[in-house]
Amino acid sequence: LTLPRHWRRNVGRLVKVTVAGASVTGRIAAADDDGVDLDADRKPRRLAYSELGPGRVQIEFNRVSELGADEEVDDADHGLDDADRGLGQIAEIDDEEGDDGE
User: Fold this and answer.
1) Which sign does the torsion angle of CA 66, 72, 75, 76 carry?
2) pTM for the complete prediction?
3) 33 vs 80, which has greater pLDDT?
4) 49: which of 20, 23, 61, 102 is 20 to 30 A away, CA to CA?
5) Has residue 42 got a pLDDT over 60?
6) How far apart are CA 92 and CA 22, in angstroms?
7) Alpha-carbon span 50 to 36, nearest angstrom
8) Partners of 44 in the beta sheet?
9) How far apart are CA 26 and CA 91, in angstroms?
10) How far is it between the farthest Cα atoms of the chain?
11) Which residue has the higher pLDDT, 38 or 93?
12) Each residue of 46-89: pLDDT tens digit?
């Protein structure tokens, strides 16, 4: 993330950025033409673009805040079947031609 529009497009996402020589990981709370509101370590910080190095969006496989404590993710809800999950049956190869490896 290098331009204000990149930061605005990624509001709500987790990012890693260099601020004053230190690496900071936080969630973009808001972004405008002047800077970014970054929630890092549960503390909101207002940072001007001039204070930020290039930011990188961090991949989150499972955001805990999106799931309740009693919710369970079911593959069927996501349209996945055994083949999609790599659990399909493995076909056995019969070598009836001969045992000499040809």
Assistant:
1) negative
2) 0.60
3) 33
4) 61
5) yes
6) 54
7) 11
8) 39
9) 46
10) 74
11) 38
12) 999 999 999 999 999 876 565 554 444 444 444 544 444 444 44
Angstrom distance (rounded) from CA 18 to CA 40: 12
The secondary structure of 47-99, three-state, reads EEHHHECCCEECCCCCCHHHCCCCCCCCHHHHCCCCCCCCCCCCCCCCCCCCC
Whether residue 30 is predicted with pLDDT greater than 80 in this model: the reply is: yes
The whole-angstrom separation of Cα 85 and Cα 81 is 7
Average pLDDT over residues 25-45: 95
Closest CA to 55 of 94, 102, 9: 9
- Do 17 and 52 contact (CB within 8 A), yes or no? yes
